[in-house]
Structures are given as structure tokens and as C-alpha cells.
Amino acid sequence: MDTRASLSILLLLFGVSQASPLTRFEGVFVSEPEPLDITTRILESNNGSSEVLIEGDLVFPKTRNALNCFNNNCFWKKNSNNIVEIPYIVSGEFSYNNKLVITNAMSTFHSKTCIRFVARSTQSDYISIENKDGCYSSLGRTGGKQVVSLNRQGCVYHGIVQHELNHALGFYHEQTRSDRDEYVKINWENMSPDMAYNFQKQNTNNQNTPYDYGSIMHYGRTAFSIQPGLETITPIPDEMVEIGQRQGMSNTDILRINKLYGC
To answer: Which among 179, 197, 165, 187 is positioned nearest to 239, based on CA atoms?
Structure first.
């Protein structure tokens, strides 16, 4: 092969790598999408979903918040070894690489908290991870089969999997916590009035943890905006603070899980 042909091939390969970045998950490289914030990715995937969703990806009805669940009915239970085992199954519709992304996302819970996602055998309460019409979950432990939807076309990414699993553990979005008005400004004029319910504050017990702009549970600046580019959420007092990241759980996300579940 002559030098010009070799150079052409190298340039072609470089171009492909730049157009479709690859992320490594346990020895397997998986193509990542363009770097959209987590809100945009989730809301695009949920557009037209048959489910009735609140805050974009919480299955209605939203009846409780695990942070105020004093009777423990919506917590997953600890075993005698102080481990919280959450049985789960994964639909056969997911590819091998899809399943690697899901298990890799779960591994952070396993290494940083007392949460363990374990293969279901006969347990009556369990999570069923399915390829449905969007990215969404119920809030906390609901009893029986509990669907976490991760559509193959837009949801099977590390940060989104962790986001939905956190909902299943009992966590709302960060921007709806009780003291959010001290940290973000909600620009009501930039959203349709019938979307305002998605920004309703919750009566949360914040576990003496700081507001976390970097939480995997924080939506991005343009969530539910009436047009592209208009901000519905603006950090204060520093408007330049990043929100809506989708890389993975923050240290504060991990701290809250450990506090809530007494790890």
C-alpha cells in the first residue's frame, strides 16, 4: 500500500472517531451520542410516550417522596448483612452492549453504596428493565413488578441509567427540592403554562446535604422550554455554573444514597 493510500485511511479513521466518540465499558467500546445534556436526551426520548409522566420521566401518580417516607414503605429493605438488595431482570430485547452499559452503571452503586442490584429469582418485589417508549421510572419501591424503561434508541447511556435507577431508589429531581429557590431561578415565562407543574417544589428532607448543581438528578437549563435555547432554569448567583450533566453520579448523589439507606 502506498503512502498516500495509508494516509487517506488514517484520516478516514480519525474522522469517524471524531464524529462518533467511543466510551469504554468493561473492555467494550460503545458509541456515544453527541454531548446533549441529560434533560434533552430524556425528554426527546419520552416525546410521545404512552405513559403519563411528571417532571419528564416520573411515572404518574407521584404519591410520595422517599426522602420523607418515615414509615419506610417506599424504601428497599436491608438484609442481615446491612446490604440493600434490589432484585432485577433485564429484557431480552437489549443487546449485549446495552446490557454492559446497564451493569456498568449499576457497578457504581455496588462500589460506593450498600445498594446491590441482584438477579431476580423468586422475589415478589423487583425492577424490570425494559425497552419501552422512553426513559422513565416510578418513584421508590412500589411493590411487585416495577418497570424502569430504557428505550434502546435514546436511553441506554451510563448517566441516564443511573438517573432512572435513582428514581427507583426514591429520589426526585434536584431542581424540585424544597430550598431550590435559593440556588436556581425558574424562568416561568420561558415555558408553556401547562408545563409549569413539572417545576413544582417538593417538601423534601434534604438530609443536611448541599444543593448539588452537578447531581445526575439535576435537569438542564432548557427543560420544557417553549423554544430551543430559552432557559427555564438559571443557576444563582453564578449563572455560569454547569447543570444537567449526564456523565454519572456526583459525590453528593452517592452521599445521599448512603444517608437515606443508612449505609
So the answer is: 187
Query: Please, is 34 exposed, middle or buried when counting C-beta atoms within 10 Å of its C-beta (0-12, 13-18, 19+)?
Result: exposed
**Number of domains within the chain:** 1
- Is 146 among the domain residues? yes
Q: Is 234 exposed, middle or buried (0-12, 13-18, 19+ CB in 10 A)?
A: middle
Query: pLDDT tens-digit profile of 54-94?
Result: 555 556 544 444 444 544 567 899 998 999 999 999 999 99
The reply to whether 93 falls in a domain is yes
| pLDDT attached to residue 142 | 86
- Classified as helix, coil or strand, 240 is coil
Classify residue 82: in a domain, yes or no. Answer: yes
Residues labelled catalytic: 164
Whether 163 has a binding-site annotation, put simply, is yes
CATH for 96? 3.40.390.10
- 110 annotated as ligand-binding: no
Q: What is the pLDDT of residue 143?
A: 86
Whole-angstrom Cα distance, residue 127 to residue 140?
11
Tell me what pLDDT residue 5 has.
44
Low-confidence ranges of the chain (pLDDT < 70): 1-41, 43-73
Q: Indicate the SS3 state at residue 130.
A: strand
Indicate whether 6 belongs to any domain: no
- State residue 95's pLDDT score: 96
Q: Domain span at residue 68?
A: 38-261
Specify the 3-state DSSP secondary structure of 2. coil
